Amino acid sequence: MHELTPVPSAVTPSVRSAGEVEYSRRYVRNGWIQFAALCWCFFLEGWNDGTTGPLIPAIQAHYHIGFAVVSLIFVTNCIGFLAGAFANVYLNDKLGFGKVRSIGSVCQIITYAIQSPAPPFPVLACAYAIAGFGISLQNAQANGFVGSLRDNVAAKLCILHGSYGATNPARLFPGVGAFASPLVATHFSHTRHWSFHFLVSIGIALTNTIVLISVFRFKTQDEVMAEAGHGPGEVGAANQSKYKEILGLKALHFMAFFALIYVGVEVTLGGWIVTYIIQRRHGGASSGYISSGFFGGLTLGRITLIWLNRKIGERRVIFIYAALAIGLEITIWLVPNLYENAIAVSFIGLLMGPMYPILVDHATKILPRWLLTGSVGWIAGFGQAGSAVLPFVTGILAARYGIGSLQPFMVAMMAAMICFWAVVPKDQRRVD
């Protein structure tokens, strides 16, 4: 596809030809349409992650299973995420950006179609692997694409990940996503046909597939970026296997382990907190809404704390957020008050919200440009595995020691997260 050359910024609007102005407007319009489509994709991801927690009690009751067995859904989810992270590099080179994104979205439709009739538990658990594979592909592609943009990358990453809980990505205003899903899932968890929640998920996944196909039309990343007036997203030549180059980046692995713990804490706390509140704080049928408070705080933090991230410094501010989150987590552990715990959970979400976008933005600054999509894909896929590993470990601990073990485990994981961030390089020369 012929690449359109962006209009030089030195040319003022008054001296541009009508054709140049039209091209400039088209670039801006196409760029925002593409970005909105990616935000809608993250909305679906947030919806998917916010579903599990409120439905765990219903799944346990329906299949007559305990904490350890129900945690297997996180194991299969983990397998899917890791498979997607490995496959992303190969599929991106062979099929291109648009096709890979569409494949990931279709995987989610298949998942929800399997889950909606409440099949036997082994089938339900296996469906989570398909969802993990699809989400991993879409997450990697979206982060790599936005990370390759020319302007305002940090702010756009915050908005993109804010769409994990946003209601209207076209307006980029935070409100629902992972915040809305627990509200709907909590309603269905009290009905006989609890699995019909996944019918709603199918509808959202269908719109996501339609949007992705309509906007990106199975094109490569460079072709899509050219439509918005950007140069190639990944340039440079590799002398060895991309897998070998990517896995040889030391800084990449530190960021991947930070992502694994961060995402694991996020999903574990947003999911298991419902069971914790019901059993330890004697919460009622509306306890599932506390999960919405957590994800609502997560969304709000990603949007409203952008200015604070810049003022303090994006690297330093993560240490501050994490320390405050640990303090709040300790209050949930030690203060037996339902309302205090609910408020503390929401503020933990607020503080954790900006961390992941900051991580991805930092990766775009220190990793080689031509390996960016694959590298960010590995960070995202490996990190998403945390959304399976840590909740599974929580289930095992709960089966043995009770759900009260959730809070000390979360404090320990947050402390480990700080340790991994401390060894991530501050700066590293990118060879472009």
Précis, in short:
With 432 residues, this protein is mostly helical. Helix content is 75%, strand content 1%. It has a single domain (26-233, 240-423), classed as Growth Hormone, Chain: A.
Any descriptors?
18 helices, mainly alpha, globular, Growth Hormone, Chain: A, two-stranded antiparallel sheet, membrane
Topology:
Blueprint: H1 18-63, H2 67-70, H3 72-94, H4 97-115, H5 121-147, H6 153-162, E1 166-168, E2 173-174, H7 180-189, H8 197-216, H9 221-227, H10 242-247, H11 250-280, H12 288-304, H13 306-312, H14 314-334, H15 338-352, H16 355-366, H17 372-401, H18 406-423
Characterization of the model:
The chain crosses the membrane at residues 67-91, 196-216, 251-277, 289-308, 317-335, 341-359, 371-399, 405-424. There is one protein chain. With 432 residues, the chain is an all-alpha fold. It has a single domain (26-233, 240-423), classed as Growth Hormone, Chain: A (Up-down Bundle), CATH 1.20.1250.20. 75% of the residues lie in helices and 1% in strands. It has 18 helices and two strands. The chain has a two-stranded antiparallel ribbon. Strand 1 (166-168) and strand 2 (173-174) form a beta hairpin. It starts with 17 loop residues before the first helix and ends in a 9-residue tail after the last helix. Mean pLDDT is 79; it is low at 1-15, 165-177 and 234-240.
